[in-house]
Amino acid sequence: xxxxxxxxxxxxxxxxxxxxxxxxxxxxxxxxxxxxxxxxxxxxxxxxxxxxxxxxxxxxxxxxxxxxxxxxxxxxxxxxxxxxxxxxxxxxxxxxxxxxxxxxxxxxxxxxxxxxxxxxxxxxxxxxxxxxxxxxxxxxxxxxxxxxxxxxxxxxxxxxxxxxxxxxxxxxxxxxxxxxxxxxxxxxxxxxxxxxxxxxxxxxxxxxxxxxxxxxxxxxxxxxxxxxxxxxxxxxxxxxxxxxxxxxxxxxxxxxxxxxxxxxxxxxxxxxxxxxxxxxxxxxxxxxxxxxxxxxxxxxxxxxxxx
Length: 307
Known about the structure:
CATH topology of the largest domain: Rossmann fold
CATH class of the largest domain: Alpha Beta
Oligomer: single chain
Shape: flat
Largest sheet: 4 strands, parallel
Distance between the termini: 48 Å
Protein name: Resolvase/invertase-type recombinase catalytic domain-containing protein
CATH superfamily of the largest domain: Resolvase, N-terminal catalytic domain
Strand content: 5-15%
CATH architecture of the largest domain: 3-Layer(aba) Sandwich
Order of helices and strands: EHEHEHEHHHHEHHEEHH
Pfam families: Resolvase
Radius of gyration: 27 Å
Family: Belongs to the site-specific recombinase resolvase family.
InterPro entries: Resolv_N, Resolvase-like_N_sf, SSR_resolvase
């Protein structure tokens, strides 16, 4: 079983030094390295990149693909499942050693359905993991920009803030109708730095703070068996399908309920998808199914309304 290492950088001004460090610390034995040419577009689908395709052709069942960070392979969560499907088809494992998804088991399958358990973890960890992936991407893009600026002789990063011993002078000049642009030129700082120094003097100054809504946390609800049976035959997205497949069956006399853990928004999507059970358009509603849907609707209605 071989250890296959995949490396990629965005431009020829970058190096693989960080990737080498992360992979070295992982202690990978006898690595077989596949490194993309720097000119390979990072927007190209990973399954179309030359060296990754070469890696897939080289791989054999039981091999493991090692990557320092997920963004070295994908540019968004939309392509992750595409890659996982191919790797699982070829019985090849994937190990991410740092950043987004590094703590997730991307190789496990459900013992009954055979579907990827990683899709379940997307349901619970999508916001956190996708946010971390975007932060990783932003760090790389920022680094690219700084290196490109250095190549042109420009110094990257923010311009300095107003020095503490100059703040009173700046504020006094502003009160004497000196413009923000002129003060920025005089003191060699950005206009934003001047605005920060005189923030409480600006005519539109307010003390309000930005409110960031918290991410949704998964909630467990009992879904009537008739609703679960209907949804299993419906067209669902991967997160919904994973939540349904991972539900725990609880027997209730001749029937059952499915204990489903999902974000409130997913429960609301389920409720919308099983609307046909309530009648209206299409075939007449079956009373038992209508009752089951309304029971589930009552449970979903107790959840905190979404944004």
